[in-house]
Specification:
Layout: E1 7-13, H1 20-28, E2 35-42, H2 48-58, E3 62-67, H3 73-83, E4 88-91, E5 97-98, H4 102-108, E6 115-124, E7 129-131, H5 138-144, E8 156-159, H6 160-165, H7 178-189, E9 193-205, H8 210-213, H9 216-237, H10 244-258, H11 265-280, H12 285-312, H13 314-351
Parallel strand pairs: 1-2, 1-4, 2-3, 6-9
Antiparallel strand pairs: 4-8, 5-9, 6-7, 6-8
Helix pairs in contact: 7-9, 9-10, 9-11, 10-11, 10-12
């Protein structure tokens, strides 16, 4: 469509008043022309809705939706998907932010691509420094096999037609682990995944997020449901060596929940059975299992390499993030000054 935005950015919001202005500033100051920002307030009880209204009044690119009851991030993103008009879809969590050239860099490389992925840097809000994250090191592997893209979906844009035509949505019955289901659903149906290494998304560590505050048993249950959904996608795609990274990712999820103190043994066994059945669905079971473990080991080495780089250059990268935030704050101050000046001018003209 001729007048459609290039990228629709979908932002679910729930009680993030402290970080929401930073997130919105990073989106409204994007260098990409043709951006649509869809914010879904998920029944916030703090000042988030007022902040959204204030920004929407100043920027016509911002569209607001509001859930009457708390439905979760997955359901909120699905509302955004239905409302989106852009050629590509992007996602930002409301306590995170992006570098101001992020979507411009991704869209510049989007010609002919179903998915375009950037990089993720972790940022500790309390310590105010860049931290290594488990998403690091994926891009090098994604260039070899697109199916390594199982997590870190907010670092990418997805062609809207790909999502619409295949009916891909976030599962709404689980409150965590819903994003790998969406990501893998898109990746399995994508012909091309392009990587832009220097397009940066900032994942801000938030100890009050749903993932951090949810107890062990619900996490195990959500992981089991997510793996069941992902396993179905893999079987539908046709289990082959190309899907090994996804099964390795599921095995890594199993390893993670096995360490949860109050994880019920029967849930862990059910999840292990799901993964085992995927192994057994291939003719070369032993070779397939070995290849999965090799892929997983390769991924861990790649992540460790990237984490070592981040640790070595932590001060330099932290300075880079702070400079980006200072630029956003400076623009914010200039915009507020301009709006104040315009308001004063209108007031003077009315008095006259």
């Amino acid at each position: 469509m001729a007048n459609s935005p290039h990228v629709s950015v979908i932002v679910p919001v729930h009680n993030t008043e402290k970080w929401l202005p930073r997130c919105l500033d990073s989106l409204t100051y994007q260098t990409l022309q043709g951006l649509e920002i869809i914010c879904i307030d998920d029944a916030s009880t703090d000042d988030s809705w007022s902040i959204l209204q204030s920004y929407a009044q100043k920027d016509p690119r911002i569209r607001l939706l509001r859930n009457l009851v708390n439905e979760g991030a997955g359901a909120s993103r699905n509302r955004g998907l239905l409302a989106a008009r852009g050629e590509y879809l992007g996602f930002v969590d409301s306590d995170d932010f992006v570098f101001m050239s992020f979507y411009s860099q991704l869209f510049e490389k989007a010609a002919g691509a179903d998915i375009v992925k950037g990089d993720i840097w972790g940022y500790d809000n309390e310590e105010e420094e860049v931290r290594p994250r488990p998403h690091y090191g994926l891009n090098a592997l994604i260039l070899e096999n697109k199916n390594w893209f199982c997590s870190g979906f907010t670092s990418a844009i997805f062609r809207r037609e790909l999502v619409q035509e295949n009916g891909i949505r976030f599962p709404e019955l689980i409150r965590t682990m819903e994003d790998p289901c969406f990501t893998i659903g898109c990746v399995l149906r994508a012909d091309t995944v392009t990587v832009v290494e220097d397009a940066v998304y900032i994942y801000a560590e938030n100890p009050h997020s749903v993932t951090c505050t949810m107890g062990g048993a619900p996490v195990v249950s959500a992981t089991e449901r997510a793996c069941a959904l992902i396993g179905g996608m893999v079987r539908e795609a046709g289990t082959s060596p190309a899907e090994m990274p996804i099964i390795a990712f599921m095995a890594q999820m199993l390893q993670g929940i096995a360490l949860v103190p109050d994880a019920p043994n029967e849930d862990i066994r059910a999840l292990a059975d799901t993964i085992t059945k995927l192994y057994e669905s291939t003719q070369a079971k032993q070779e397939f299992l070995y290849s999965c473990m090799q892929c997983l080991r390769k991924r861990i080495f790649a992540i460790n390499d990237k984490n070592e780089f981040f640790l070595e250059h932590a001060e330099e990268l932290t300075r880079c993030v702070k400079e980006e935030m200072e630029k956003m704050q400076s623009r914010h101050r200039r915009r507020e000054q301009m709006l104040t000046a315009v308001a004063r001018k209108k007031g003077t003209a009315t008095e006259a």
